[in-house]
Amino acid sequence: MIKAILYDLDGVLVDATEWHYESLNIALKEIAGFIIERGEHVSTFNGIPTKKKMEILNKQNRLSDTMFQDVWNMKQEKTKEVIKKYASIDQNKNRLHQNTKHLKKVCVTNSIRETAKLMLEKTGQLEYMDFVISNEDVKNPKPSSEGYDNAIRKLKLQPNECMVVEDSPKGIEAGKLSKANVYEVNGYYDVTLENILKKINYFNMM
User: Which of 19, 89, 129, 153 could form a disulfide with 124 if both were Cys (CB 3.0 to 4.6 A apart)?
Assistant: First the structure.
């Protein structure tokens, strides 16, 4: 029986993938003189933490070690600016959470804690989360299952009592490694009350 929903953040609870993409590219262009093209973002960088993205760029000899901190700092500042500018109360997600109050809810994200909580707060969803696990709370971000493992342990539940909701390949891999039930969505607009309840019923019938 499903007792908890473990949500990814970007592309699941908030439509923020574009915000991260835009913010990082602003920082990369200003400091390093290049951007990540759309196709490369989708195939390689989507769903992984900023620091991991920079490590990949460093291995590709596109970003030097000396630029890391400046790029990271600017990216975080630009992300906060974008969130404050574009984020608003999400009535559909609030309806989802209000009608699943009998279930525990956790956000497990590769974003930093400050950014994650700001996104959830500005969209009206933070109050519904029992807690948030960010990339600062784990040694190994997704595709490692550490974040989901920690959430399940903190909830004092078994993996089969939890449903992970993920949209990116790395997040889906992390969910499956945790042994929880995984609902693979195509993106933010798939995460509706009707779809969530239908999937919970499916897993409960298994």
Answer: 89
Tokens of 162: 């939890």
134 CB neighbour count, 10 Å cutoff: 21
Q: What is the pTM of this model?
A: 0.86
Give the domain 4-15+89-205 fold: Rossmann fold (3.40.50)
DSSP 46: T
Q: In whole numbers, what is the pLDDT of the chain averaged over residues?
A: 95
The Cα-based distances of 87 to 36, 60, 82, 114, 188 in angstroms read: 24, 34, 8, 15, 14
pLDDT tens per residue, range 166-202: 999 999 999 999 999 999 999 999 999 999 999 999 9
- Helices 146-155 + 169-177 axis angle, to 10: 50
108: part of which helix (H) or strand (E)? strand 104-108
pLDDT at residue 74 greater than cutoff 90: yes
All structural domains of the chain with their residue ranges: 4-15+89-205, 17-86
